[in-house]
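Exercise 7b. Backbone tokens:
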């Protein structure tokens, strides 16, 4: 029976870490740390819950059902499950996450040397997505290319950057700002949405399983075990990266004048602390991190839509790479602004889906619980996303209702209605008993 040796298992963990470590994982923690200031610890804890804990639980849930997202959404029915999967794949694929990987790596790693001109961005994104396309065409080599070659270089660079953030702060820690003053834990929780890691976990589960299959391992028990070990390795590494970048940002107030995103803050810190050699190191870190994530996302999207549409994998992947290239020229700040309302609306669905799946043994007929609870989640999640985008609701009556719900001002009005729906659906499921044979 084929098994992974320790070196291959570590490489699988490194590959998983590299798949998750993209633009959002590097640009959001420094800015969150800066704004959290003296409230850094509760803010970082909230961030870790959604950016590390939730993705870990998602992969565990996927491993338990023994398949990809289609198996996880099976209790919703084919149409609802497919609609949710399409939305997730488009958001973490060509519409937001993958273009963000290219533009973030340009603005942070390349623009200090090339400038911020549109021509420079176009040239860089062209090269970036050419490399992505070349690697996406051969997904079976992800462990060899990413896990054994790229990720070790990435980890060494991140260790140096993280150590600098902890022991070479640019200045003293400042007082907390904005929402971090009163609710640092909750604000950090919401900031973790922006990494898109939980959504990425929904699709990376199948990428990890495919990488294990390509090593000749097909026994479900072993695939599940290796997938969970890989994500544990990745989660530990991600947590260390996030904490160190939080500390880096918290001590960088003296450098923060006029910054519009965490990428600018990170660039200023590196230039201040290390000069030009540091900027070169940062360029290596951000380009490799974003390249590996883009490859993983495009591979997952290509495989999903190829099966859904009945079109060849390479054709679908090539179209998505081209679409990502076009969207990447919008700019980092604009992409972040566009993505926030979508994530506020979509993340509750991912959270509730994972929770229901992990508690699947509690339901006698899962469909009785999944469908009504996810329907309520969808309604209130979409309402939160529209509110975050500044879109007025249908009437003053509905506006007053939504705004009066607990946590509505945080874009989490869905929590109470979903909790009530879960209690009712769970009670009805128990009362009706098991399905007839």
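Sequence design result:
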């Amino acid at each position: 029976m084929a098994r992974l040796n320790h070196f291959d298992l570590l490489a699988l963990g490194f590959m998983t870490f590299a798949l998750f470590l993209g633009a959002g994982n590097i640009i959001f923690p420094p800015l969150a740390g800066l704004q959290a200031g003296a409230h850094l610890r509760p803010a970082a804890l909230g961030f870790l819950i959604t950016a590390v804990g939730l993705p870990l639980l998602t992969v565990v849930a996927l491993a338990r059902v023994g398949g990809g997202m289609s198996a996880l959404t099976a209790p919703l029915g084919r149409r609802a499950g497919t609609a949710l999967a399409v939305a997730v794949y488009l958001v973490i694929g060509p519409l937001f996450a993958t273009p963000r990987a290219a533009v973030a790596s340009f603005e942070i790693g390349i623009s200090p040397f090339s400038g911020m001109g549109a021509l420079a961005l176009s040239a860089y994104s062209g090269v970036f997505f050419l490399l992505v396309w070349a690697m996406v065409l051969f997904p079976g080599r992800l462990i060899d290319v990413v896990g054994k070659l790229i990720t070790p270089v990435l980890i060494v660079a991140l260790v140096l950057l993280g150590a600098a953030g902890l022991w070479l702060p640019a200045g003293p820690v400042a007082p907390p700002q904005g929402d971090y003053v009163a609710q640092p834990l909750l604000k950090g929780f919401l900031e973790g949405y922006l990494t898109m890691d939980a959504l990425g976990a929904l699709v990376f589960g199948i990428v990890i399983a495919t990488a294990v299959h390509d090593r000749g391992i097909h026994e479900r028990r072993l695939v599940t075990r290796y997938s969970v070990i890989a994500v544990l390795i990745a989660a530990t590494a991600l947590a260390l990266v996030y904490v160190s970048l939080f500390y880096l940002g918290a001590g960088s107030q003296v450098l923060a004048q006029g910054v519009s995103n965490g990428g600018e803050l990170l660039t200023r810190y590196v230039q201040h602390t290390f000069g030009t050699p540091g900027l070169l190191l940062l360029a290596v870190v951000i380009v490799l991190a974003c390249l590996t994530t883009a490859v993983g996302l495009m591979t997952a999207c290509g495989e999903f839509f190829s099966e859904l549409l009945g079109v060849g994998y390479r054709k679908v992947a090539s179209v998505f790479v081209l679409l990502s290239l076009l969207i990447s020229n919008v700019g980092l700040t604009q992409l972040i602004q566009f993505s926030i309302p979508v994530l506020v609306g979509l993340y509750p669905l991912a959270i509730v889906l994972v929770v229901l799946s992990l508690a699947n043994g509690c339901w006698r007929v899962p469909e009785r619980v999944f469908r009504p609870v996810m329907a309520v989640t969808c309604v209130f999640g979409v309402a939160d996303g529209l509110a975050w985008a500044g879109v007025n609701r249908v009437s003053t009556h509905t506006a007053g209702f939504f705004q009066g719900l607990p946590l509505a001002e945080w874009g989490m009005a869905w929590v109470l209605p979903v909790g009530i729906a879960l209690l009712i659906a769970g009670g009805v499921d128990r009362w009706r008993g098991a399905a007839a044979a």
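Instructor comment: The CA atoms of residues 183 and 376 lie 26 Å apart. The radius of gyration is 21 Å.
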